[in-house]
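Here is one chain, start to finish.
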Amino acid sequence: GGGKLTGEAWVEFYEKIKQRFSVDSISKLKNLTEEIISSEQKKTARKRGPTKSNQGGKTVSGSGKDFTGGDTNTDNNQNAGKPDTIFDFFKKILKVFHKGNNSEIKKNTAVKPLKTVNKSVNSSDSVIKKSPLEMAYVKGGTFQMGSDASSREYPVHKVTLSDFLMSKYQVTQGLWESVMGYNPSKFTGDDNLPVENVSWYDAVEFCNKLSEKEGLQTVYSIDKSRKDPNNNNGDYDVKWLISCNSTANGYRLPTEAEWEYAAKGGNLSRSYKYSGSNNAGDVAWYGDNSKSKTHPVGQKQQNELGIYDMSGNVWEWCWDWYGSYSSKSQTNPTGPKKGSERVGRGGSWFNYTGRLRPSDRDSTYPYSGCDSLGLRLARSK
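Its structure:
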């Protein structure tokens, strides 16, 4: 029937998700997945009629909004109905699993740096090339962090922050490759595309190397030979010991509080629903308009602080371990002392509008990366 996979594919699929979901055998995974496939195919057949394509001798259902759990709208996608790769198939099934899970940052296996490839990359003709190092000054202040929209964001609590700098643009592939010597991204072809498929560990290394390149003090102390006792993830062995010197003048990841404050417009906030507008399409690349890919940074409307893409395009790593909020007032919080996942903010090209709100939050393992997750830079003032 439709949706059958080879034995090798089931093993690969199982290895990809066993650390995140409560599935303790390939047999259990196969039964559950085939139930999902059957149910989704019936829905799609009722709404759109059958769409099938042949891939390697196996019949798979065509892509569609219903099959992806309603997270993105692919009905108008030019690739809808075309053959899926096994990787695309995995992503669709994962999205259905995610409907019952808090996290929508896709959990992939550990990211391994790619070898440097010498290739010609053209900058977008539709965008004036912008400096990815341009920083916005964010005047400190007090704001209400969180919301009542979901349990992830509750309780709302008072946070006071000092002045800091936030990059106006998400880190681009051009900048990343000039510093790291490789480009890990899935979506390529333009230096101004945001870098993605980077782990949290990759991100902090990038911050230090960029600081060194510009003659600034490095913020992070990184010891790869020692395991972080505050990393509670028992499923993976990569647990670099990393400490942060917040007084250093180099580049770093923003704290979760800094990120939300800047996304809301800081002390210039107009209380928009998204970062810079009440209309998602004005400020964000997301499921309804992205055509299932990232877009060059800075194409959408900026927010009150002159910062772009804080809603959509790619999720952005923050410094903090993920944990529940406290109701107590805080000053310059840096998150829990320990945890198993690091925070990601902002939503991405495949999300629905609810994930684009400045107060929404998600997380994933620090060793993990995916094609919807990148970063933005901050500096202490």
